[in-house]
From TrEMBL:
It is found in: Cytoplasm. The keyword Ribonucleoprotein does not apply. Its main location: cytoplasm. It catalyses: Transfers a segment of a (1->4)-alpha-D-glucan to a new position in an acceptor, which may be glucose or a (1->4)-alpha-D-glucan. InterPro entries: GH, Glyco_hydro_77. Pfam families: Glyco_hydro_77 (PF02446). GO terms for cellular component: cytoplasm. This is 4-alpha-glucanotransferase. It comes from Leptospira ellinghausenii. The lineage of its organism: Bacteria, Pseudomonadati, Spirochaetota, Spirochaetia, Leptospirales. SUPFAM superfamilies: (Trans)glycosidases (SSF51445). GO terms for molecular function: 4-alpha-glucanotransferase activity. It is an enzyme of class 2 (transferase). Its EC number is 2.4.1.25.
Amino acid sequence: MISIKQRRAGVLVSLSSIVSKHSFECGDIYSLYPLCDWAKDIGFSIIQLLPLNDTGYGYSPYSAISAFAIDPLYISLYKLGLPYLSRKNQIVSIQNNPTRVRDLKIKYIKEFYLSHQKEAMKEALNFLEKQPWCYSYVSFRVLYETYEGKNWWEWPKEFQDPYNAKDKVFTEQREEALFWVYLQKIAFDQLNAVKLHLEDNGIFLKGDMPILTARNSCDVWEHPENFFLDLQAGAPPDHFSQTGQTWGFPVLNWEVLQKSHYSWWKERLLYLENFFHLYRIDHVIGMYRIWAIPKEDRTALKGWFHPQFGIETSEFLKVGINPKEMEERGLIHEFKPNHYIFYWDFWKEEGYQSLSEEMKARLFPLSQLHINEEEKHWRESGEAILEIFESFSSMVPCAEDLGSVPTFIRESLFERQMIGIDVVRWTKSFTTGEYIEEDHYRENAISVLSTHDTSLVMEWWNREGDVEPKLQFFFDRLGKPRPETEDQVLEGLLDFVFQTKSLFSIQLFQDLALGVSDVLQNPEKHRINYPGTPDHSNWTYRFPILIEDYVKDFKRNFTLRKLVHSSGRN
């Protein structure tokens, strides 16, 4: 097979947003066929997808009810030979309703399943035999439907025990259970066929592996020992948020996972390999350490980097400080017996400010006491985990290393030659704070204009920060005329990002929408996700043009082809 690791360009899509004339209401696995033809014509050789995991009654694929199962939303009715078409043959709204679409698809597939039930059940049983994870997922899914998405710990006691529940579901609701297996079997077959089709066309498919798992998920229900359920993951305060971020996901218990030789991760990666050639490791920093916060907290201020050694009671007493008194002042927290962590920015608290200078001089150094050993420990653990991951699969891992990445992690990823991500708007010189030139980008990275969590590049250009330095850097510096239209701005930015030294340059589909006036003039309407806002206001985006119509635009295709060709990425 040809080498993936060479200079390449690609496109990133939220699959449900790419509607084909053969789709039903939203994009699905079939949409990847016309997208493949277009990508090949332009010179793109990577198509990247956001996660396809089953989200249940939620919307975010990063908060799925299974780390394995594919959302039935993505099953192509057309590929199944079912004659159902969207209500309208033109896209009227740029928002879809995933719950409604999923329910309708399941209804139609159920009718199909019942029409040849004996054969379908046999197929389902064969799939179940090869994919043991599906047994617990389906048991969970049937109960999740029965209790209308209620948290598993609120179910009747008998179903909180997964082993008892699995027996009961597959005995008493066997037909229903095998139907859910059948849905996964169809999704598997369709996505696996796409991978082979793309390979035949010289295009690689890149998947996405969320690192965290929803608390109300099959994985946490079946293996609670793999998680610290009294904690939630998040991010410490930074310039984006003064109170940090709380994500609600339980924190992974790496020690327990290690005892089973990381079998859960191994199964996940081997399953993903049926569909993808490369994969994105979401929040790679979390493989080294993660910000852990008590489960009930609404802000991330009382969190700590997990795992942490902490400062022992004896180390406080050695310098004449009673840790209980400091805990009462709200400066530290006993996170395990006789071990304390210092709260983030504790020195700004009134409880610290009111201490005598002599007491501050004794207390403050304790907060830095084990930092070097901890960083060494975090680095070793993270590298061991990533090494194991690489041994499990032949897929090429790409690290999502955005945000405040500590130096020791940055150095570790560099030494491991992990492919990272550089977002143009944030890739600036550490010394001057200015944008950096194309040749100074990391080679072992993916250069992008936007991500699914940011504004589109045109919104950033128009509304975020001063436009004048951008004009000077992206146009004046290169002796290009200043752009007079949105199309010219976007073309100039695409030219820049493709010319970067980065190994890959993969752009969000909406950032390639040259000539699509609504995307260029109202980019804020075409975002996929606004982090920190309610789940149901996100993940419903639908591109305003059918993919078959979009790919016919000669002018756009010619421009993109020229940009990709001149950057040596085709």
